[in-house]
Amino acid sequence: MNPKSEDRPEGFSTAPGPRCVPFSMKGNEMENSDRTKPVTRGFSNAAREALYQTIFSRRDVRGQFTSKPIPEDVLSRVLMAAHYAPSVGFMQPWSFILVRAEETKRKVHELFEKAHGEAAEMFEGKSRAVYRNLKLEGILESPINICITCDRDRAGPVVIGRTHIKTMDVYSSVCAVQNLWLAARAEGLGLGWVSILDQHRLKQILAIPKRVIPVAYVCLGYVSHFFDKPELQSAGWRPRLPLDELVNFEAFNEDASDPFATRLLERIRKDQKKIEDGGQVGDFVATE
Amino acid sequence: MNPKSEDRPEGFSTAPGPRCVPFSMKGNEMENSDRTKPVTRGFSNAAREALYQTIFSRRDVRGQFTSKPIPEDVLSRVLMAAHYAPSVGFMQPWSFILVRAEETKRKVHELFEKAHGEAAEMFEGKSRAVYRNLKLEGILESPINICITCDRDRAGPVVIGRTHIKTMDVYSSVCAVQNLWLAARAEGLGLGWVSILDQHRLKQILAIPKRVIPVAYVCLGYVSHFFDKPELQSAGWRPRLPLDELVNFEAFNEDASDPFATRLLERIRKDQKKIEDGGQVGDFVATE
Questions:
Q1: Interface pTM (ipTM) of the complex?
Q2: Of the candidates A79, A88, A186, which has its C-beta nearest B268's C-beta?
Q3: In terms of pTM, does the model score above 0.80?
Q4: Same domain, yes or no: B82 and B217
């Protein structure tokens, strides 16, 4: 075998300007002809770029669903992404309840309407008017709704890693939701997480047993478009926070002024500016 | 403007065999020259492939850390990925406490050792012996530990989407952890989530105030290698569950036998077999 550079896998040019990555990613470090050989390195710039653009352009979709059906191969892939999420003690506590029937959707939509009305009353003055005007779910318009659950008894009473933090299993199911969300975005599917509803009644509608938690109820479907920025950000509800102010050192809210910390915070400010200035759909990794 | 095909963005050939994606992803639907134009479609096969390979090859890393320092640009990117996670009501409740000092790490490691001893006692017979032999953290070996928190007061008492499910803010921080984890994998960084410790004592060590929850404590660093499969799977602790058995229809544990459901479940079995047979680092999207 030819020696490879530490940082540049075979098949990638170091020349500036447009470069090509073979479509099948053969020759990429993600592909090993010898399956027993461990994968040791990071991905190519193009592959990292794809991941970051998925992350930065992912949106909580409420109002742009189309009725275009989701083919089974696409649905299989996004569910597979969810199933390969991390789980405490390899518990895989999730199930995925696919809701397609109009009748079930209507029942869940009624739950939302009730909770939404109650929620509006909790906001004061101008916020209440803004809140009422927000479109917050696409239960009826999206072709498929999915309830992602957590079965707390999936692996018996004692689970590696759940012995001291009891909610780790629920966190695992949340990781599955996030994987599903990112895969959906890459497939051109919008996903919206509906959290404004009564969980106890949702469990009744979906016949979810006592030991199982309905962690997320999401709407999934093709969309007319994805917004450039989160709707609550565009609506001026809350700004995107500066990440450099959320990075602490050694203890909560503690700063650091050593050279590495200074360089890191400077870099974070620069990176965030690039994304907010329009880089949510542009280059992030590849350019300075 | 030239009309584009619905499914094939400009710059992508429909011919079989190796194809090229321009490195900067210009001409891809992820890049829009007109920033006001919404992004409407899914990503190219290569970009989706990159996301799926990140997801399938992500590992909980405990024992393969090297001392190679993490450059600030890489650390900035993985933190940025976390910061662009979804959050309820755009709350962005997270902070990231970077732990670099040997002294802090030692204190946290002591917490782990204590909890780990307690946990071992909870397992019976053979399981206890297996449990004791598992390497479950890399606190001291990894160059940086990060505590990802959730500040429940980040956006005032009433938060959109948190009115009926109080834990939504914690779930947001978990989504940030998962984004960080995937970005780390793509950068060639291993990440291990340490959940075997006393959260109250962890809060004391990191001076975390009462209102803030330490959602995750993770170890981050370059690794000698990534395992092909999860360690608990390889060790025979638990198998990877068949996803088709976790997909329900309309209600918990309910099957369906309509043509779409049948095709979906068949596809899921096929896709999972492909991944388990070695596709964790190979083609998933591009090939049949």
A1: 0.88
A2: A79
A3: yes
A4: yes
